[in-house]
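Holo prediction — adenosine-5'-diphosphate.
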Amino acid sequence: MITRPLAPADTRPQVMKVDLEEVLAQPGRLLSPGRWNKPQVREVTVGDHPVILKDWRTMARWLRPLARHLARREARIYGLLQHLESVPRVLQVGDRTLVLEQVPGRRISRLRGHRAAATAAQALEEIVARIHAAGVYHFDMRKRDNILVTDEGKVYLIDFTTSVAPRHYGPLGWLLRPVAALVDRYAVLKWKNALAPEVLSTSERRLLRGLDRLRPWRKNN
Ligand SMILES: Nc1ncnc2c1ncn2[C@@H]1O[C@H](COP(=O)(O)OP(=O)(O)O)[C@@H](O)[C@H]1O
Ligand SMILES: [Mg+2]
């Protein structure tokens, strides 16, 4: 059961844990079929609340240790970000399963040409600064599916499958940090440029052009 105790007006309500058995027992709505190296993702309703189930058990049997590793990794990353408004709450963690709060948003790309685009682009930049401050680098924000925007214009980051928390890698992590930060910065600049190019400063435009040039194999998007 999910209950949503009242929280101060301007903060997001706390979400209580769900019964994992109840979630796993339901077929739900398929959001992503999964692949040999990817979890299946389903939307399941618990009580009256939709929740998201990421299920690595659908990966090949012989890859079970990898599936377990990937599931734990993503749960651990989500765990580092639970104080942030713009990241879904973790409702339950199981063996190769992760249940998340469902964000009622749609992919960010739908805002192209919309009045709210500039605000969303700037919100994204702030969110990324916050996840970095929490020691997490997303690494996969160029995919429009991984940034959701609600009808009220709130921006959420999801899918931390390929994210890294350099603190988990000891001294190597310190070396990784600037590169990881640049990869996320590049994605933010791409989105700012795609959604509201007028919000890019001259130096950001220059950086974006420079980073584009470093990727000669890039698609023209
Ligand atoms: N917390 C969430 N709230 C709403 N939709 C979600 C949530 N998590 C995942 N989804 C949906 O499921 C899709 C797949 O989930 P994701 O975590 O991106 O896994 P992957 O891209 O590895 O398949 C997302 O693109 C999104 O449409
Ligand atoms: Mg994704």
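READOUT: Residues 143, 145-146, 159 surround magnesium ion (ligand 2) (CB under 6 Å).
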